[in-house]
Design a protein that fits this description.
about 260 residues, mainly alpha, 2 domains, two-stranded antiparallel sheet, 11 helices
């Protein structure tokens, strides 16, 4: 049953709402969004109240303020506290939000069981199943955050088909475990550009423009390579709504992964 009175938001509810905030573009934070409707159902709140809470978070988001978006000025001290928890401990809070939300969806927990008390399996946990579950959760949340930042469009081609998009890690997943959930280590790419980026066939220069490897140009003349890659050489990466990629990460990619010959 939805709540009709103004019931204060619990810390666990705010953690879920803040996690949801990072997985939606600002323009989709409205009561008609099916994702907001679903979270509202799980929390026993109205879609309007959840949408309003997301816009409250926008009012404390410096990246939105830099874009001229002010959100609502009615955010609470509790909103600010949860925002600060995400800012200072992104990985832990992102996983707490995602795992609690997934548990609610599966009917495995109630909000009376604190998200802060939820002990998610450590990556070095004794069972392979626990490790796989954690990795899937991390990958799932990272994908949602990165796609939301880029409006679910490839930052090179503009492809909007989500089934064809990949949340690419600039610093490799296997080599940089501490950056696995960092959204500034992610860009949204169409699948074939993701593969080319992962294999060092393309990169981005210091101005975030597409650079092609000689290893890719070796296949010229070829109509497919020319139409998909060559015509986009020098094109600027489409800027995300939030979480602009770290230039230092691209520097590593150019020096260690990109194939210069």
């Amino acid at each position: 049953m939805n709540r009709t009175a103004r019931v204060p938001w619990s810390h666990d509810e705010l953690v879920i709402a803040c996690g949801l905030y990072f997985t939606l573009p600002f323009g989709q934070m409205h009561a008609r969004n099916p994702k907001i409707i679903e979270v509202a159902r799980l929390l026993g709140r109205t879609p309007s109240s959840v949408a309003m809470k997301l816009v409250n978070f926008a009012s404390v988001d410096p990246e939105q303020r830099a874009r001229g978006i002010r959100g609502l000025s009615s955010h609470s001290r509790a909103d600010e506290q949860v925002w600060e928890e995400f800012r200072s401990n992104w990985d832990e809070m992102a996983l707490a939000s995602e795992t609690t939300l997934r548990s609610l969806q599966a009917g495995r927990t109630n909000l009376g069981d604190s998200a802060a008390d939820f002990r998610y399996p450590d990556e070095n946990a004794p069972t392979e199943t626990e490790r796989k579950v954690k990795i899937r959760t991390m990958q799932g949340f990272f994908r949602k955050v990165v796609l939301a930042a880029y409006g679910s469009k490839c930052c090179i081609t503009g492809n909007p088909v989500e089934d064809l998009l990949v949340a690419s890690h600039v610093l490799p997943w296997s080599d940089f475990p501490e950056q696995r959930l960092n959204p500034r280590n992610g860009i949204c790419l169409a699948a074939h550009f993701d593969r080319a980026f992962d294999r060092g066939l393309i990169s981005f220069d210091g101005d975030l423009r597409v650079t092609l490897s000689p290893a890719l140009k070796r296949y010229l003349p070829n109509e497919a390579i020319e139409s998909e890659f060559v015509r986009r050489e020098g094109q600027a990466l489409a800027a995300p709504e939030r979480f602009s990629p770290d230039p230092g990460f691209f520097l590593y990619h150019r020096s260690r992964i990109f194939r210069p010959k």
